[in-house]
Description:
The protein has 249 residues and is mainly α. 73% of the residues lie in helices and 3% in strands. The relative contact order is 0.14.
Amino acid sequence: MFALDVAAHTGPWRSRHPGEKALLSLGLLACAVILPPWPGALLSGLAAAVLLVGPARVSPAVVLRAARVPLLFVATSTVPLVVTVHAPIRLTVNTAGFGTAAHTAGRSVAALTCLLLFSATTPLSEVLPRLQRLGVPAAVTEVAALTYRMLFLLVESVRAVREAQAARLGFRTWRTAYRSLAGQAGAIFVRAFSRARRLEEGLALRGYTGSLAVQVEARRMSPPFLVLSGGLLVLIVAVTAAVVVGPQW
């Protein structure tokens, strides 16, 4: 399993209703996106980070491991904001873009932390059935569940093929490594199609009609948790308004 899935299934917030965690995480996400970067996005990101490593007890190593690829995307996306390309091929640093780049990166990192707060505390298997009850089309939830399942099968296939190639000294030199990577891509492509066909045949033999009924454990909302979550969101909005609007008065 992925590190985030392990944290979501074993964390202390595992028994909480997904709606509670959605209110907190998505509320913080809305604050990070809608409010000004300073101090709204900063407060939202800090609150999500503190909740992640504090009450949710998610290891900082797990958080950094899950965020490293999105953070790399954020870093590369902010480069064009501070670099200008002139003809024919000449790069110059645009000092006026540093403020925009900082605001964009800060807001993006804050939004990413809020999303990690939800994904690291809520298993997807508890979210999809409840989304269908809320009116989301069954086709959407079924495709999401199938994609989620196929991700694990894909990672398992990659690991199995790579271990087999390593046992045969497939990564001994650069030349053999390139050849092994090409063979790995072909083998995984064939295995993915084979597994998808077997899955389709298995569902057809079991009378699949477009929706799989899944029993979900009943959970109750916690009024104190909802009140504290709402209070935190109101506090962030109030502090941001005081900092931004206050000096104008």
